[in-house]
């Protein structure tokens, strides 16, 4: 998919905050180096904590409307230092990141986890880990539904309501079954907490079962979220495709990253499968204020996110080339040696 007939892709780039500013240029370096047959025309958007502190604006409607006109979005990370008194809690996470995901209907948050050859896992015997988490991206407890009463008093009550619509659950479950069907193992696991979150759990379970009946070739199972974390730590190779809600998917995928070489390698796509708006590609990690500005962040996750972007735009060969370049770089990494963020980007781009 390109925006015109000249093979030009309109790419919105939002480096964001912290290490987002450092890893995004490396991802762009790789996107420019790979032979995809198309030209990426980039528009950079200065959005994030610094922009907010300067302008008191997070995502003006005109900017959102402009971003919507692009073919795809590449995002670094957003979020300031924890508990910064100048940043209202969640203002960037909810006002920018989730706003983009919700407004652009990124209902499939795709997070693949593979233990690439030569990559170290903290698990002694991880096995052949290759699974993908299909995280619902527009509902759950992240919709901002809730509130607080009697704030600051001993009688304070705070709620965050998890929203789960039949429409929202069914479409992501259908996407997960379709993905499972295309994979060799054809196995799908629903992860939830149906024993306690009975209302949300019920709609997830019923729709999962209903869609399963249409996919007799996909084997299925169910795990409660807590038990799923045991299995992911003890025997992660058992998973193929996991479908789950927005919050569980957020948490699972940080663990998934940790067991497959670290958060610096975990890529993601916020996908609008209906293509009614641009999809957005970003590393799983955040802005990492603890290491920002030091050129020590690993840009591999951001670089692998461009592989997901290329694949989404229909450039499967270029996507595979980026992944192959990353794999080659990973297998050359030696424990105890460190490279700057830009050196890793240079090395991967050079392989293309
Ligand atoms: N998609 C996004 O934009 C996300 C934004 N955030 C925001 O980012 C800020 C920091 O959040 P945290 O919870 O600390 O999560 P984080 O993912 O930014 O950092 C967690 C830990 O992983 C390390 N880390 C992260 N990326 C790395 C990389 N590429 N290479 C090496 N080490 C890396 C960090 O140094 C830190 O120790 C917060 O404001 C949070 O809301 C968090 C997650 C996702
Ligand atoms: C900062 C959150 C809104 C997002 C997050 O942690 C994630 O998508 O992984
Ligand atoms: Mg997260």
TrEMBL record:
The record marks 142, 193 as: Important for catalysis. Binds 1 Mg(2+) or Mn(2+) ion per subunit. It comes from the Bacteria. It is an enzyme of class 1 (oxidoreductase). Homodimer. It comes from Nocardioides piscis. This is 3-isopropylmalate dehydrogenase. Residues 10-348 form the Isopropylmalate dehydrogenase-like domain. Signal peptide: none annotated. Catalyzes the oxidation of 3-carboxy-2-hydroxy-4-methylpentanoate (3-isopropylmalate) to 3-carboxy-4-methyl-2-oxopentanoate. The product decarboxylates to 4-methyl-2 oxopentanoate. Its main location: cytoplasm.
